[in-house]
Amino acid sequence: MVHIYTNIKRPHPDLIKDFATQSTATVHEVMGKRGAVHSSIKPLYSGMRLCGSALTLRGHAADNLMLLKALDMAQANDVIVADLGQLSEAGPWGEVTTVQAKVKNLGGLVTNGSIRDSLAIKELNFPVFCKSVSIKGTAKDSLGYINHTISIGDTVVNPGDIVLGDEDGVVIIPLEEA
């Protein structure tokens, strides 16, 4: 099996711009009450919004190797959507990765895992939706998958789907329906 797909279909930038003006609750309702990511995945700070094309990854708990590779591959406005096994006692994303994401003009991060360096991320004004915050570091050992279909917060996410997040949570809009 191929671990990393580099060529994915992304939504047109105008479509992302249009969705960015909508609320997650409205989009969820309009889609027939589908696409909502579990409410345990919350915005890191109040007032945060994100909208972009999903760059998906499935990595191992307490390991950020695939996050670093996804960050390297990501294009402007991509939102990294990371299934990291829901471990709440390791922070594979922090200030250093956030600085690189800002330089690349990424749309944000959504993960079912934890992050660290939360104050620095807030000061950098980078949108992160996560399950928790943990000061514990991670390894860089285990191969995972990038741009495969994943499930995060009880919701299926395909590469290129539109990811919309606000104070109420995150909703995934399948690209073929957008």
- Summarize the biggest pleated sheet: 8 strands, mixed
Report the mean per-residue pLDDT as an integer: 95
The proportion of strand residues reads: 25-35%
Number of helices: 5
Distance between the termini: 29 Å
Low-confidence stretches: none
Order of helix and strand elements from N to C terminus? HHEEHEHEEHEEEEEEE
State the shape: globular
Helix/sheet category = alpha/beta
Give a quick precis of the structure.
This protein is an alpha/beta fold and 178 residues long. Helix content is 21%, strand content 26%. The two termini are 29 Å apart.
What does this entry look like structurally?
With 178 residues, the protein is an alpha/beta fold. The protein has helices at residues 13-19, 24-30, 65-73, 95-103, 118-123, and strands at 42-43, 50-58, 78-83, 108-111, 114-115, 128-130, 132-133, 145-146, 150-152, 155-157, 162-166, 169-173. The strands form 3 sheets. Strands 1, 2, 3, 4, 6, 8, 11 and 12 form an 8-stranded mixed β-sheet that branches. Strand 9 (150-152) and strand 10 form a beta hairpin. The longest helix has 9 residues, at 65-73. The chain is globular and about 40 Å long. The model has no long low-confidence stretch (mean pLDDT 95).
